[in-house]
Amino acid sequence: MTELPGGTWMLGDLSVTRFGYGAMQLAGPWVLGPPADHAGALAVLRTAVELGVTHIDTSDAYGPSVTNELIREALHPYPASLHVVTKVGARRDAQGGWPTARDPESLRRQVRENLDHLGLDVLDVVNLRLGDAEGPVAEPVAAAFETLAELRGQGLIRHLGVSNATPEQVAEARAIAPIVCVQNMYNLAHRHDDDLIDALAADGIAYVPFFPLGGFSPLQSEALSAVAARLGSTPMSVALAWLLQRSPNVLLIPGTSSVAHLRENAAGAGLVLSADDVAELDKIGR
Q1: Sheet containing 83-88, strands listed edge to edge, beginning at the edge strand earlier in sequence
Q2: Rounded Cα–Cα distance for residues 181 and 221 (Å)
Q3: Whole-prediction pTM value?
Q4: What pLDDT is recorded for position 100?
């Protein structure tokens, strides 16, 4: 087992590797249906654990239920060190959309579905997905988050987090129950959460950027390419390494459906960037 870059972070009382794995890409095209290569998907999950990853991010909306069932098939019974983080608050429709589903009964049903499809009696971390497919939306979150806090009180969830949230929604959720993580879109080119990351770090709360490499439109930047060329690496490796060096509370969950790409991500995230490299890269999002 190779040592993963970045060390570990505590999600409440759960120790996780800062380099984790996001399972969304294991589902079919546009995160719908089964993977084209079922055996390959299982191999990616097993390789992640073999590499030492102890943080896997998923949702029962992926597929729907496809990634959770793959995780169960590949890894159950789960190693004691492995922690699966899931999210609720959205469903999939027949057109491939992501309509919100945050009423109390929908949230209770989604928690049950995650438990069933993952083969668990309790979920380590559940993020409440807010906003919509376009991004965060300024709206109250109390009713939905109180439902998850109730399920936590019943012993079905260990820890809570929020996703796709504004700083105001993070504060509103924290006033209801403790959170261990915030999962928002953030990368070299999208740095709107810089202040939030620093505030969360001061309080010991993880920040988990989704689309760390740009998502469906990979990061493109002359500065990024220049730094990568200077280091003899790839732009995506540099982008991951920059995130790990951005703040100790940043946890990575890059996704891939390829074992080779997973290994490249794990190795690339271990790049050490100089102060000059970071200064050059910091100009991209500003």
Answers
A1: 21-22, 55-57, 83-88, 123-129, 157-163, 181-185, 206-210
A2: 29
A3: 0.96
A4: 95
DSSP 27: S
SS3 206: strand
Report the C-alpha gap between 245 and 18 in whole angstroms.
11
CA atoms within 13 A on the CB side of 73: 14
DSSP structural state of residue 15:
E
User: Residue 141: its pLDDT value, please?
Assistant: 97
Contact 10, 205 (CB under 8 A): no
Rg of the Cα atoms in the chain? 18
In this prediction, residue 216 carries a pLDDT of 60
Cis peptide before 34 (omega within 30 of 0): no
Q: What does the alpha-carbon distance between residue 208 and residue 181 come to, in Å, rounded to a whole number? A: 7
Element (H, E) at 264: helix 259-268
Tokens standing for residue 265: 């991500």
- Residue 178 near residue 148, CB atoms below 8 Å: no
What are the backbone dihedrals phi and psi of residue 29, each rounded to the nearest 5 degrees, phi first? -55, 135
Low-confidence ranges of the chain (pLDDT < 70): 1-2, 215-218
Residues serving a catalytic function are 62
Among residues 52, 53, 46, the alpha carbon closest in space to that of 20 is found at 53
Helix (H, G, I), strand (E, B) or coil at 156: coil
Of all helices (H) and strands (E), which one includes residue 245?
helix 235-246
Largest interatomic CA distance in the chain: 53
Collapsing DSSP to helix, strand or coil, 39 comes out as helix
Cβ burial 231-240 (10 Å sphere, 16+ → b, else e): bebbbbbbbb
> Which residues lie below 8 Å from residue 139, measured CB to CB, with a gap of 6+?
130, 169
Number of neighbours of residue 33 by Cβ within 10 angstroms? 13
* Residue 174 phi, psi (nearest 5): -65, -25
Joined tokens for residue 238: 């540099």
